[in-house]
Amino acid sequence: MNTGEALVAAILANSEDDTPRLVFADWLEENDNPEWAEFIRLQVWLARQHEYHGDHEACVVAFRREKELAKQLIVPLWEGEQPEDAPSLGVEYDRGFPHAIICTSADWMRWSANIIACNPIRQVTLTTEPEWNCTRDKVEYAFQGNGMYWLEGEDEPHLFTGRELDAAMRPIEDISLTLLRLRWPGIEFTRMDLTRMDSDDMMTRR
Fold it and tell me: Are 74 and 91 a contacting pair, CB within 8 Å?
């Protein structure tokens, strides 16, 4: 693991702390990537201004610069080299790193391990319905014991206890999203109606 990878690992281990991000920004600047370094520092500063109600005019200038950098920057989304068949994803940045993406359920099932290996992803918006090999009756029955379910495209089953399902589905709102949240704790899953997608959405296609 080189220095850059070690710094990213520190960010992933403590994604709420700004310090590892700012240390990484210093490293980026020293290693010929000043634009990404500026982007991290700018978003960290903006987040703090929002929290502490900072100077409005300075924030407006910073927001403009943030948009400029977001359009021109290529922040690595993939672990290692980007795969040739990698899909186009909608990406939203938080303090210099991708933290929310928009993708199809099939793309998430296939590429999630690669994406979350180097990004502090906290939100995933799916544009298609996930496919499961279980029914609502099976999920409800699992409250009384253990339920084992497969995610489409994965080789191994994942065991969810009745207690976990009971906590996650109270009330039962959406089986697909519930199972996704159980499979990837710490990530919020939602679905998007593409017909209502705002053309001015800040998500950047990558």
Answer: no
